[in-house]
Amino acid sequence: MTDGRGPSGPSNPRARGGRWPVRQDTDAEDNPAVPVRRGPSLKARAVGFLSRREYARAELARKLAAHTDDHGALDALLDDLEREGWLSTERFAESLVHRRAERQGAARIVQELRQHGVDEAQIGQLKETLRATEYERAMAVWQKRYGDRPVDRAAYAKQARFLAARGFAHEVIRRVLGAERDD
Fold it and tell me: Which intervals hold domain RecX second three-helical (predicted)?
């Protein structure tokens, strides 16, 4: 046939649902001292991650560690990114608080900040601002879910567990649910 088709269809393997053959890199096999670069550079990966969302330094280091064996180069890259303004743990912490504050209490947000390796001094500052608005935020979350005061102990316990699971303080939960009930 003159149209480039063989007996079983087009000669393009992808047209038959197959894959293009993978090119073998023979130089790396012959000379192990020649490093084979696969994929984007470490800085390109870091900037790609940071262009999608903010990262804490420790979190970005964990993500990039899988792509390099040279931890000194990784630390130098992270230092460069911080110096150039691409990476900021403070900006990450503020972003996380902004995203979570509407739905979660201070305890849960603080725990997540600690998991991401945010500095304790900054956590303390953010914790104070979260505590100042915790009652209003808990009331908004409770109103959206329930809206009516609990009628018995079982309903009270259910609503209290709901708010506690979101990291709100117990005294705030008691204020929201009206602890002055007389059951």
Answer: 90-123
**One-letter amino acid identity for 58?**
A
Three-state DSSP at 30 gives helix
pLDDT digits 0-9 by tens, 87-145: 999 999 999 999 999 999 999 999 999 999 899 999 999 999 999 999 999 999 999 99
**Rounded to the nearest 10 degrees, how much is the dihedral formed by the CA atoms of 64, 70, 75, 81?**
-60
- Report the SS3 class of residue 52: helix
Assign a CATH topology to domain 44-87: Arc Repressor Mutant, subunit A (1.10.10)
**pTM, two decimal places:** 0.69
Question: Can you give the residue ranges of every domain in the chain?
Answer: 44-87
Is the Cβ–Cβ distance between 164 and 174 less than 8 Å?
A: no
* Cα four-point dihedral sign 147, 151, 154, 160: positive
